[in-house]
Design brief:
68% of the residues lie in helices and 3% in strands. It has a two-stranded antiparallel ribbon. A hairpin with a 2-residue loop joins β1 and β2. The longest helix is centred in the first third of the chain and has 23 residues. The protein is elongated, with a radius of gyration of 29 Å. The N and C termini lie far apart (79 Å).
Length: 453
């Protein structure tokens, strides 16, 4: 028998005696148990009485905090109380690591609901010192561990904590508390909870995670959250008008995030940074914006957002230039050299930039003219050849050019002049279903129907 397992009965008995003892005695016995539960064998051998005693201590601490709040007075021996809460949660956290038996026992005793209640009480204590932060961190780590691989615990946490607790902890000033809160949130998610998360009124939680990302770049959860938003936005037939209105209200936030972080994608020119978190979020933000601008209900609002079109053109120019200066993921290629390139997260990025530009110019004269002024038309034409790093780039370039030239003679004339001077490939224009025509001493671009093959 392992030393830890042999010491467990004595430590458990000591805890039982200490429940009604002074706070210092309780603290010492809980701390000893927390150390034992770092090992697998003592965890598996733990009796329900141990967790019942820990529950009683936490409920007693909750009562003390509530009474102090009710009487509008300072919590008696506050530091010891916070230390004891932290050690209880540390003990529970350690005891349910990869231990389904303990997870079920704790949940059935009501430790999840008690913990969520206590976290809310701790948040109400108007101090920002290390002891309080430690108690909150350990409490969230416990929720994360009891939820890991346990659907019943995940459902219980979601029922008790969503959305209020998540909103509270995501807005906390401590980075670890925010990160642990994200861990709990994403551990609990399944397809049903995703629908609830992205339902009108609840999307605030998702957007709060994105806000956290903007402030804490090491947060790993924003990519997953953007995947969920992307999935929801793409469900055009199932998204209600109420949900669409909600997405529109937050379009400014998503577009603003993209504008702030777009240049991060240039890190992907280095193979060593192929999994850079900031760059991955930029890619997914672009995907979300492409989907949102593909929906007529949201397009007009996004077309009017200041700076979004300019950002897309500037980013296309930067990535295009980066691909010409050195061989990297932004370099046009006609032959895949290996699986690494195929699976690179930036594959298709330039295609999607051109798609976004095309969407923003759809039946919008102001944006058409803006692309002209920013020299975006030659840039798009320079990206219209087949590129294995950007599947469908030719098709999206066709789409963008058609949207840019529709009822816009100046843009038509520019392309015609480029073709006449050899700056635009006539075969590329023909592949787009466009041809140059001279009319009243002006060269214009007109659309032609292709003959069926």
């Amino acid at each position: 028998m392992a030393a830890g397992a042999g010491a467990l009965p004595a430590a458990a008995a000591r805890l039982g005696r200490a429940v009604a003892a002074a706070p210092e005695a309780r603290l010492e016995s809980v701390r000893a148990l927390a150390g034992l539960f770092r090992e697998e064998q003592p965890r598996e051998m733990a009796e329900e009485s141990v967790f019942r005693d820990l529950l009683e201590i936490l409920m007693s601490a909750s009562s003390e905090i509530e009474q102090a709040d009710k009487d509008c007075c300072e919590l008696v021996d506050r530091d010891t109380c916070l230390l004891l809460i932290a050690e209880c949660f540390r003990c529970l956290r350690n005891a349910c690591v990869e231990c389904a038996k303990n997870q079920h026992v704790m949940r059935n005793l009501g430790l999840i609901s008690t913990s969520v209640h206590l976290i809310k009480l701790l948040h109400g204590i108007q101090i920002k010192e290390e002891l309080l932060l430690t108690a909150l961190r350990c409490s969230l780590q416990f929720l994360g561990n009891i939820a890991a691989g346990n659907g019943d615990s995940q459902n219980s946490i979601w029922k008790c904590a969503f959305p209020d607790l998540f909103l509270t902890c995501l807005a906390y000033s401590d980075e670890k508390i925010v990160a642990y809160c994200c861990m709990v949130l994403f551990t609990c998610l399944n397809s049903e909870k995703v629908r609830e998360l992205l339902y009108p009124g609840n999307l605030t939680v998702a957007l709060q995670v994105l806000k956290v990302y903007k402030e804490q770049l090491e947060s790993e959860w924003s990519v997953t959250l953007l995947e969920l938003i992307m999935e929801k936005v793409s469900e055009k037939n199932t998204v209600t008008s109420e949900e669409m209105n909600l997405f529109m209200r937050h379009a400014d936030f998503l577009a603003g995030s993209f504008k702030e972080k777009c240049e991060a994608v240039l890190k992907l020119t280095s193979a060593a940074d192929a999994e850079d978190e900031e760059a991955l979020v930029t890619i997914r933000l672009l995907d979300v914006l492409c989907e949102m601008t593909s929906n007529n209900g949201q397009l007009e609002h996004l077309q009017a957002l200041p700076g979004l079109l300019e950002t897309a053109i500037d980013t296309l120019r930067l990535t295009h230039l980066a691909g010409k200066q050195a061989v990297n993921i932004f370099t046009a290629t006609h032959t895949m050299t290996g699986q690494e390139e195929i699976s690179h997260p930036a594959v298709g990025f330039k295609s999607h930039l051109i798609r976004l530009i095309g969407n923003l110019c759809y039946k919008n004269k102001e944006n058409q003219d803006k692309v002209y002024e920013l020299d975006g038309i030659p840039l798009i034409l320079d990206n219209c050849s087949i590129d294995d790093n950007n599947p469908f780039v030719n098709q999206w370039a066709v789409y963008a050019i058609r949207n840019l030239t529709e009822q816009n003679e100046r843009n038509q004339e520019l392309i015609a002049q480029m073709e006449e001077k050899g700056l635009a490939d006539n075969s590329a224009l023909e592949s787009m279903g466009l041809e140059i025509e001279k009319r009243d001493d002006k060269l214009i671009v007109r659309s032609v129907r292709k003959k069926p093959s």
